[in-house]
Design brief:
Elements lengths: L2 E5 L2 E3 L5 E8 L5 E7 L6 E7 L5 E3 L7 E6 L4 E6 L8 E7 L9 E5 L1
Parallel strand pairs: 2-10
Antiparallel strand pairs: 1-3, 3-8, 4-5, 4-9, 5-6, 7-8, 9-10
């Protein structure tokens, strides 16, 4: 069955880095994205990548700090997060850009 599985969450200090991975199984999507949701806040799209040409889009709140990328040979989408801030703490989800298919999420904590 179609499956998106996220890895790489954890706890880091303010200014630290993490790399999230999303392994994609049995799915071909022309666009993949990372979303996040903090307690009491709406889910927001962080970054997306068009899998055909690699074009990326990032939210203003993370531009210059977060980078989305893909490794087609590994069926994996990454989110490199640098200069993390406490406000970046959230559950991070991998999903198709149309929001129809979701992973279960991975928690990021910044202290």
């Amino acid at each position: 069955h179609v499956q998106l599985v996220e890895f790489g969450g954890g706890s880091v200090q303010d200014g630290g880095s993490l790399r999230l991975s999303c392994v994609v199984s049995r799915l071909r999507s022309n666009c993949m994205a990372w979303f996040r949701q903090a307690p009491g806040k709406q889910r927001e799209e962080v970054a997306s990548i068009y899998t055909g040409d690699g074009r990326t889009v990032a939210a203003d709140s993370v531009k210059g700090r977060f980078t989305i990328s893909q490794d087609n040979a590994k069926n994996t989408v990454y989110l490199q997060m640098n200069s993390l801030k406490p406000e970046d703490a959230a559950m991070y989800y991998c999903a198709t850009c149309d929001r129809l298919i979701w992973g279960r999420g991975t928690q990021v904590t910044v202290s």
